[in-house]
Specification:
- 39% of the residues lie in helices and 13% in strands.
- It contains 14 helices and 15 strands.
- It has helices at residues 21-28, 46-53, 57-69, 119-132, 147-161, 176-189, 203-213, 229-233, 256-269, 323-337, 342-353, 356-382, 407-416, 447-462, and strands at 73-74, 82-83, 105-106, 170-173, 194-199, 216-223, 226-227, 239-242, 272-276, 300-305, 317-320, 388-389, 396-400, 419-420, 437-441.
Length: 465
């Protein structure tokens, strides 16, 4: 906001500095001493104000007009321009600081390296899409999504994820949460009342989507081989949300025998498996695990996005549907928002077709692999006895704290030392803090910050004071 110079007070020379008592009084009253009070006259001659500020008269006039349009100034015929009443800060109301505290390292999970998103590639793809986009494409279009993107996604998913699909059975959506919500609403309309989900997992996301669909959400425990299919079979659930390629947050892959058992459960129960294929592109120590959808295309809804591979802000995802669900899910999408922006869809199609998407993934695999190496080296130096799991894929690890450790205390103590730590308790349906574990995300943390962060809180991880 433009600040106007105060007029010289009566009885004081223009070059005489005001006494310290005036600003102190303003602060004591809860006002910003540099903010003009409501009702104050503004300088009447823009030329004089422009000269005093060292700017052009036209710029001052534009500022006046903008401040008046935004309600900071008021004008009346025959009266001076004044500061509007609503522009003043109410006395005694402190203004909170919005500046975030700076962290040495923030091990936030589920976030890719935002700085590595190649904006120039995305702008190129947008320009190419806009240049070649027929006029008819500016209409609402097919609720399943643009045919060009669905065709490209079909080839990509067959090649990279061993998916068994075709363009008719893909519905483009605005990220994973929308894809999950659309699917659950369709299943609820078909008479499914209970959805199971992995525990630990994403209780908040699944529970919220289930509540919106009018369904009950039921947690099923996960062990070192993935979701317990026998425990699932003992429930009344007819749909389950799983992360089979890289379980969130434990990092385990669903064991082969349990994959087969889960598919058999779906066939026996006339159930649907919802596969969250969230970061399967990033594997390091072994070959990629194929999508569960490839084993049972008639029983699995597989949801993927570019939130982890490119950036969450793009809000583009896809739902690979069984043939019998593709139509109803597309109809739900149409009712929900009339479709995902077509220009963005075509830009993503251009990005994949051109090879830029694959090149970006190769760069990011190398980046995350290097950060994983730094994380392991730092933990080996500062917390050598701390077990760490879940590092075969993705960009987070699970640190298993010593017996008796207080997870919440360690998270708080880390924040006090300017290191962002996150407990696995938030991923448990019960929010239980034991056994104490930390989820260490390194997707959006540089190598130097990883090393400094672990060095700062290494004693907390081992229970040393």
């Amino acid at each position: 906001m433009v600040q106007f110079p105060a007029r010289a007070a009566a009885g004081r020379r223009p070059d005489q500095r005001p006494t310290a008592a005036r600003p102190a009084t303003a602060r004591a009253a809860g006002r910003d001493p540099h903010r003009p009070p409501a009702g104050r006259r503004t300088p009447a001659v823009p030329r004089d104000l422009a000269r005093s500020l060292g700017v052009s008269r036209g710029l001052v006039q534009e500022c006046y007009a903008q401040l008046q349009a935004e309600g900071y100034l008021t004008t009346r015929p025959g009266s001076a321009t004044r500061v509007a009443t609503g522009a003043a800060v109410p006395p005694g109301v402190p203004q909170p600081s919005t500046a975030p505290s700076r962290l040495v390292a923030d091990f936030r999970c589920g976030v890719p390296d935002l700085g590595s998103f190649r904006v120039q590639d995305w702008l190129w793809a947008l320009r190419e899409a806009a240049r070649t986009m027929p006029t008819a494409r500016f209409d609402y279009g097919d609720p399943r999504g643009d045919a060009a993107l669905r065709e490209v996604l079909t080839g990509y998913l067959r090649r990279v994820r061993a998916a068994a699909t075709d363009p008719q059975h893909i519905v483009v959506c605005n990220g994973y949460a929308q894809g999950l919500g659309l699917t659950l609403r369709v299943l609820a309309d078909a008479g499914v009342h209970t959805v199971a989900f992995e525990d630990p997992g994403s209780p908040g996301t699944v529970t919220a989507a289930a509540a919106t669909a009018g369904m009950r959400a039921l947690p099923i425990l996960v062990d070192e081989r993935g979701i317990d299919v026998q425990a699932l079979a003992a429930t009344a659930a007819r749909t389950v949300v799983v992360t089979p390629a890289h379980q969130w947050p434990t990092g385990v892959a669903l064991a082969p025998e349990r994959r087969l058992a889960l598919v058999q459960w779906a066939r026996d129960r006339d159930a649907v498996i919802i596969e969250d294929d969230y970061d399967a592109e990033f594997r390091y120590d072994r070959e990629p695990v194929g999508a569960l959808q490839g084993l049972a295309a008639d029983r699995v809804v597989s949801i993927g996005t570019v939130s982890k591979s490119l950036a969450p802000a793009l809000r583009i995802g896809w739902t690979v549907c069984p043939p019998q669900l593709a139509g109803p899910i597309a109809e739900q999408k149409h009712r929900s928002d009339r479709g995902t922006p077509t220009l963005d869809q075509l830009a993503l199609a251009k990005l994949i077709e051109s090879g830029r998407f694959d090149r970006h993934l190769r760069r990011m695999r190398a980046t995350y692999a290097a950060r994983r190496t730094v994380l392991l080296a730092a933990l080996a130096e500062h917390a050598p006895e701390l077990p760490v799991t879940g590092l075969a894929a993705g960009f987070h690890a699970v640190a298993h704290l010593p017996a008796g450790a207080d997870e919440r205390h360690i998270v708080t103590a880390g924040r006090e030392r300017s290191v962002g730590l996150y407990g696995i308790s938030a991923c448990r349906a019960s929010l239980a803090t034991g056994p104490a574990q930390l989820v260490l995300g390194f997707g959006d943390v540089g190598e130097r910050a990883i090393a400094e962060g672990i060095a700062t809180i290494g004693h907390l991880l081992t229970g040393r004071s």
